[in-house]
């Protein structure tokens, strides 16, 4: 009797061990849901944030300003389908946009002053150059909104293209003071003449001899490398210098400004500690006995491709320590 009982107990134990073993093997065969560990670099942080942001990328519209300029909506909607290199844009709509740009650049209305107060002399001014890449700008704004002490910043958004969606995005920024400015010499505002594309312009890669024979407008003025003006490229450079001049010389709120001005692009990404790192840089510079005109938070990194012999550009600015800061 005792022997039979022991056999039953042993049999049940064997069955239990077998079931437990099979369960463990089944669990081990399943794919792991845990992400593989990655290096804690700013590139990875940026990528993780972008992925998260694109899943949840809708900006809050609860406080959306419904009073976006009717002039912009009407004129921009009519212009957006125009091929500015081949067609003639409606002059009335272009005139409306030009008037809006000149009026806005004269008024220079700073948004959110009621929430954050006036610009202090030592506040950091972040100047971002914007074209029409709304997705990149949205990610940039989402990232900078998480920076510590961002409420003290004046964010100057310099635009060279006007759309209702862009105006809505800018007017909805609520985490700091915002000043929109508009580059007035664009292809959108001058679609069929300089500084836009003039039908009489020389082709970019045309030789000087052919340009002279064709009698195109700028035949006598190729650049250092023998090429002629490409509107998209030169407009970006012109916007850069106009923006710098405007920010330093034309904004009344910055007449007595003694703080830092940080220039970035819409496709850059600022780490949450960028203001802290700027403060550390300023503190460090005070300890050395050399003049310093500007700081660099990061670099446009380049990686050489041996197979193709090309140098792809990786756009991005990453706030980091002094190991990224090289004097000279």
Could you please describe the fold and organization of this structure?
By secondary structure, the chain is an alpha/beta fold. The protein has helices spanning 2-29, 42-55, 70-79, 91-107, 113-116, 134-144, 164-171, 208-214, 231-249, 274-285; strands at 125-130, 154-159, 177-182, 261-265, 301-302, 313-314. It is built from 10 helices and 6 strands. Helix 3 packs across helix 4. Mean pLDDT is 74; it is low at 26-69, 78-90 and 308-328.
* Distance from first to last alpha carbon: 94 Å
The stretches of 5 or more residues where confidence is low (pLDDT under 50) are 26-69, 78-90, 308-328
Principal-axes geometry comes out as globular
The strand order across the widest sheet is: 3-2-1-4
How much is the average pLDDT?
74
**Tally of strands:** 6
Fraction in helix: 25-40%
